[in-house]
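Lab notebook, bench 4. The sequencing result for the construct came back, and we need a structural model before the next group meeting so we can plan mutations. Quick request posted to the team channel:

Model the 3D structure of this chain.
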Amino acid sequence: MSERNEYPPGVPCWVDTLQPDPQAAIKFYGDLMGWTFEGPGPGGYFVARLRGRDVAGVGSQPSPGAMPTVWNTSVSVASADDTARKVKSAGGRVLRDAFDVPPAGRLAVLADPAGAVFCAWEPKDRHGAQLVNETGAWAMSALNTTDTEGAKAFYGAVFGWTADSMKMGANEMTLFRLPGYVGGEPQQPVPRDNVAVMMATPPDPTAGGVPPNWLVAFWIADADAAADKTKKSGGKVLVPPFDIPRFRQAILADPQGAVFSVAQPKRAG
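Done. Here's the predicted structure in token form:
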């Protein structure tokens, strides 16, 4: 596990979801992840907590139904306004100009050239998740995209990320790394400057493709039990539990449609 108090610029730092019915979301994730909630704060925003530390956010959509219900990934930046300008210069889009979220920080909603949406977070009182890589906490976010080469260039220009690609069966996985950053734990199987991962997706929806997106992954004690509980609670099992090196993983959707993944670390041996 990792306890964190701050995040350098260029490091993903926070995940949250804005829901039509935040109270229903709080019940669902509280039961599934073991979270307690603090709030509501400004704008009806609740902070999910685990062992007394902040792990994620659940908020209310400004106009229910007017936007897709998703999990958002925010990257820590020195200036949300400057990052929005970099995104434009690199071929991305600014979906919402930087705005203040007092007293927590300043936020801009952005999209890369392929359309994957993410946020830039300029911290003030809230720096990000205080607990990661623990059962019930956020582990990492993964970019699924139809244009991996374009993504390497874009995120390199905006955040200074480098990219190391490797084969995973028939697919290719890329580690996004931030040179000079030291995160995670010494014993982890990936470099400690690894900040995100990327997978290629088919461009044709009929071949199993999905729109480019950032998928949020949480660690869970039992992936099969989480899938069963999600289905019984009114959610969906989009990809049933399957094994990958070191993890058993599933891709789920909550009852209001926000997609996320859960990963169960395998015991050594």
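The chain has two domains: 2-131, 134-265.
Will bring this to the meeting.
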